Amino acid sequence: MPEFSYFYLSKQMIKQQTISNKVKRKVASIPLGEVFTYRYFSGGPDEEQALAQVLSRLTRAGKLVRVGKGKYYKPVTTRFGTLRPSEAEVIKTLTQKGNESTGYLTGTGLYNRLGLTTQLSNVITIARNSRLPLKELKGYKIKFVIRAFKIKTADISLLQLLDAFTDIKRIPDTSPSKAIPVLVNKIKGFQDLQIKRMVQLAMNYPPSTRALLGAVIEYYFPTQATDKLSNSLNPMTRYRLDIQESILPNKAKWYFK
Questions:
Q1: Is 185 helix (H, G, I), strand (E, B) or coil?
Q2: Starting from the edge strand earliest in sequence, which strands make up the sheet with 71-73, in order?
Q3: Over its length of 257 residues, how does the chain's per-residue pLDDT go in tens digits?
């Protein structure tokens, strides 16, 4: 029995050392600052505990920094200290699970990227299906907003524009008259099927968003159908939007005043 135990322990030690070497080689190939998870390492559930132990040892040694549960990055160290991961890496960590999207960037950070505002935000806003409390992650403040529909990777660029249409009066350092031409240029980069899909997705948004999208599509993309949008609106409701007639000549038809 002691011989069997010794043989078993030796076999386990060899296996753990093999996993440790494999993990260290994989970690060495990861670019500095890139956030990664357990999924980056191939191996069955029986190796997960050994993997966690190796990553924990590398973290204690300062080779890795733990961002969240099962999430790490290789830090960039300067004479001023260890740099936090890039905003892009943090966003990727919060919006992806494997190959699936669980959310997307929205809010002022998105509108800055779209060229709608020059203002930067100290809060990263993430749209997702379930509510999470405000949190701080390695110096980044994260706010979550709810989207009551399934988020698909192929739809994210469309959803982000719909968010911009929804928030058009609240986007800092701009106006609807300045924002609409920027959004129109973004839509021009879409294929016809994508514009149709955006119309379909707009059914999940407030009536004012559907009305504004309908007015924009009708005027700037006249070959695209807008019946679905117009039929979804209450003709007795009016929406207030301070926008120049030259930018949206048909705004009254779509119930804007």
A1: helix
A2: 35-37, 71-73, 65-68
A3: 455 454 444 555 666 667 778 888 888 888 888 888 887 887 666 677 878 888 889 998 888 988 877 888 888 888 877 788 888 988 988 898 877 899 999 999 999 999 999 999 989 999 999 888 888 888 889 999 999 999 999 999 999 999 999 999 999 999 999 999 999 999 999 999 999 999 999 999 999 999 999 999 999 999 999 999 999 999 999 999 999 999 999 999 999 99
Q: Which of 173, 177, 149 lies closest to 163 in space, CA to CA?
A: 149
* Cβ atoms of 83 and 55 closer than 8 Å: no
Structural contact between residues 122 and 144, judged by C-beta atoms closer than 8 angstroms: no
CA–centroid distance for 169 within its chain? 22
Amino acid occupying residue 68: G
Whole-number Å distance between alpha carbons of 43 and 70? 15
* CA distances from residue 123 to 63, 169, 188 in whole angstroms, order as listed: 28, 19, 30
Tokens 């980069």: give the residue: 189
Specify whether the CB–CB gap between 114 and 160 falls below 8 A.
Answer: yes
